[in-house]
Design a protein that fits this description.
heterodimer; A: alpha/beta; D-Maltodextrin-Binding Protein, domain 2; 2 domains; 17 helices; about 50% helix; about 15% strand; B: two-stranded antiparallel ribbon; MetI-like_sf (chain B); cell membrane (chain B); membrane (chain B); transport (chain B); transmembrane helix (chain B)
């Protein structure tokens, strides 16, 4: 009994000491910033490149990049914010996930941040309230869709890069009839590629980018309109040019088919550049989604993917704002773009990117109009979920088990069930 | 810790029972009973938009009558019954057959076979899913060439990617993985049958088929019944294989969607779909009820009629 008692008092002292120690370390923590992120792949880049560069101009602030694995990020962050242990800076997922954090009071409004003036409205659209009044995250990076092609196969078959849709399909036809390569490296097993690399990739050319996306949001356009049906019609035409058994082909299969040199064209997201740089031993290039006839304005999906905001409970908001302002600078944009090719800074600065393919992708921002994926803002809030529907119907259209018209009808019906402007 | 002071009290309260039971009971209640009750409770609320309100059975009504939910729900339930049926028709009879073959005294290397057949059960579902995807892959897989070599090449297809065959293929993979469990359980029971009974039958002139049919099978029926219950519970809780191979959207066109994947999407959300804890709890409660009813029906109609034999 007396033993137990002494144990208890020892543990009581231990707790008291721990409390003291932790409060002491909190006092020491002034001047340090912790960044919550899901980009664990970028941890080295932050510690070796970005943070040292920041410390050159801000030597008195210590920054720690503390990532969580991507699949656990949302729930882990939620728990940390509720417990009050989250870092000072929060890496923001686009749209509703972060909007919920802001409306729950976990993120600060950034309206007064001067760095925000460096960004366009499209870039900021992913982290702004529905009424456009409050900006809660600083845009950090986007990914661009397009097609990556194997330059050696193109040379071997004497093909030129297609600019129009007709050229695109004649290139596909030539590859199919004159060689044993798969013309297009894409499968429908994972479904998301059909929607993301297919529908959202070639679609903006049909629905005229932002104009079409806004019209859909305002209820002025329907998914049954010609623009959307035609997008699915083109996807349906991809079917004969996909590899054999594409219904069971997964994302990694497609990547491997391309990097092994067995497929000529890969419907891509710019994030694939890093993988291909590491794995492909041939030269590859990129072209934007082909337009109807040459001279047409081209539209690209320049999708806002990563933002960064300030934890409303951070003890160190001034330093955090300082870091955000620096992240809006030309210096950060250039460092980041070159450290992670395929993720493009969203600020308006002109930057030099060394990776040739990444450079090609970002050059489309000048020649084409940018838009974001049309299902991401507001439209995927209800039940049925538009994004999930797009995955399902796009994969089915490519599989040939659903007509483009039926796909349009199903998604439009889904939207009409809960989205007032479409009713 | 107080000692009883009344001289007339003969037996002190059996504190030692409480103390010995407490750790297990505490763990069981904290990690099993409490979450279960909490889930049942949560399913009566609506937790959307941050605050929760009591809505009674509304979640269940939505789940069964609202087109957006009911379509997915019935589809998942139907697929789940299909998944279960394939296991009952294939896994358990094959397990029985293997057990009978293994228990044959004439079979050499039976230990090796037993280990090899049981091996997949011990592997992670993720590995099984990955290996079978590779085997069946139209791009890298060996199954196409194998079929060509035995002259069945034109039957090959991207089975895992077609709406009509994906669920059946996944069921076969699951059967292949778990066939070791009925095999081991039945095998153990078969070994327990005393030789005297079999010898007596043989002396009376029963051939091996009759010995199996009239002597061994009745004796292993309770085990087969138990295996069926285990299969039922495991199949209606199945999730990992589908998630590993087809992802949470269980394509193509939800043809491989089971209750488990449907629950996952509802509770945790998916991609841009926000999860709903209360709706997810409603799905979980229905899963629990389906399993409960299934097991109870089984106990009432089957288990009670099975005779047990004492040797």
């Amino acid at each position: 009994m007396s033993n137990a008692h002494s144990n208890l008092s020892v543990s009581r002292y231990a707790i008291a000491t721990a409390v003291l120690l932790s409060s002491a370390s909190m006092i020491n923590a002034a001047g340090t910033l912790n960044i919550e992120s899901w980009r664990s792949d970028d941890a080295n880049i932050w510690s070796d490149v970005i943070i040292p560069a920041f410390n050159k101009s801000h030597p008195d602030t210590t920054v720690y990049f503390t990532p969580t694995p991507p699949t656990q990020y949302n729930s882990a962050l939620q728990a940390k914010l509720q417990a009050g242990t989250a870092g000072d800076l929060i890496t923001c997922r686009p749209f509703d996930t972060s909007l919920t954090l802001f409306t729950s009071g976990y993120l600060d409004s950034l309206n007064d941040l001067k760095g925000l003036t460096e960004f366009s409205d499209v870039a900021k659209s992913a982290w702004v309230t529905d009424d456009g009044k409050d900006q809660f995250c600083l845009p950090m990076a986007s990914v661009i869709h397009g097609f990556i092609y194997n330059k050696e196969i193109f040379k071997e078959l004497n093909l030129s890069v297609p600019a129009t849709r007709d050229e695109f399909f004649s290139v596909l036809k030539t590859i199919k009839s004159e060689s044993r390569y798969s013309p297009l490296a894409m499968g429908t097993a994972d479904q998301w590629e059909s929607a993301t690399m297919g529908f959202q990739n070639i679609g903006p050319n049909y629905w005229k980018g932002e104009a079409g996306r806004k019209a859909l949001l305002e209820g002025k356009a329907k998914l049954t309109d010609e623009a959307y049906v035609n997008t699915w019609k083109e996807l349906a035409e991809w079917k004969p040019y996909l590899g054999r058994g594409f219904e069971a082909q997964k994302y990694s299969d497609s990547q491997n088919l391309f990097t092994l040199g067995r497929a000529a064209i890969y419907p891509a997201g710019s994030w694939d550049i890093q993988t291909f740089n590491n794995q492909a031993d041939f030269e590859f290039g990129a072209f934007p989604p082909p337009v109807t006839k040459s001279g047409d304005t081209c539209y690209i999906s320049d999708h806002t993917d990563i933002g960064i905001g300030i934890n409303a409970n951070s003890p160190n908001k001034a330093a955090a704002a300082e870091l955000l302002n620096w992240m809006a600078s030309q210096e950060f944009a250039e460092l980041f773009a070159n450290a992670v090719p395929g993720f493009f800074p969203l600020s308006n600065h002109k930057i030099a990117i060394k990776d040739p393919v990444a450079q090609e992708f970002i050059s489309w921002r000048d020649s084409c109009e940018s838009t974001i994926r049309n299902s991401y803002q507001i439209l995927s809030r209800g039940t049925p979920n538009l994004e999930n529907q797009l995955w399902n119907v796009s994969a089915q259209v490519i599989n040939g088990t659903m007509t483009p018209e039926a796909a349009a009808q199903e998604t439009q019906n889904g939207l009409e069930q809960w989205y007032a402007p479409q009713q | 810790m107080t000692q009883p002071n009344h001289p007339d009290e003969k037996k002190p309260f059996p504190w030692h029972l409480v103390i010995f039971l407490a750790p297990a009971l505490l763990i069981y209640v904290t990690f099993s009973v409490y979450p279960l009750l909490d889930t049942l409770f949560l399913s009566l609320f609506n937790t959307q938009d941050g605050n929760s309100t009591f809505v009674g059975l509304q979640n269940f009504i939505t789940l069964i009558t609202d087109d957006n939910w009911s379509h997915a729900f019935w589809n998942a339930l139907l697929n789940n019954f299909m998944f279960f049926a394939i296991h009952m028709v294939l896994q358990n009879p094959i397990g029985l057959l293997l057990a009978v073959l293994l228990s044959s005294p004439k079979l050499r290397l039976s230990g090796t076979y037993r280990t090899l057949i049981f091996m997949p059960t011990m592997l992670s579902v993720v590995i099984i899913g990955f290996v079978w995807q590779l085997l069946l892959s139209p791009i890298w897989g060996i199954s196409e060439e194998f079929l060509y070599n035995i002259g069945l090449g034109h039957y090959f297809d991207a089975w895992l990617g077609k709406e009509g065959s994906a669920l059946i293929t996944l069921s076969f993979i699951s059967v292949w993985q778990f066939v070791g469990i009925p095999m081991m359980l039945i095998y153990a029971t078969l070994l327990n049958i005393p030789d005297d009974i079999v010898d007596a039958g043989t002396v009376d002139g029963a051939n091996p088929l009759q010995t199996f049919w009239y002597i061994k099978l009745p004796l292993i029926l309770p085990t087969i019944a138990m295996v069926s219950i285990l299969t039922f519970v495991a199949n209606f809780n199945a999730f990992e294989l589908i998630y590993a191979v087809k992802g949470a959207l269980a394509g193509p066109n939800f043809s491989t969607d089971l209750m488990g994947t449907f629950f996952y999407r509802t509770f945790f959300g998916f991609q841009l779909q926000q999860g709903s804890a209360s709706m997810g709890a409603a799905v979980a409660t229905l899963m629990f009820l389906i399993i409960l009813v299934g097991v109870m029906l089984f106990l009432f109609f089957v288990q009670r009629r099975i005779q047990r034999f004492q040797f």
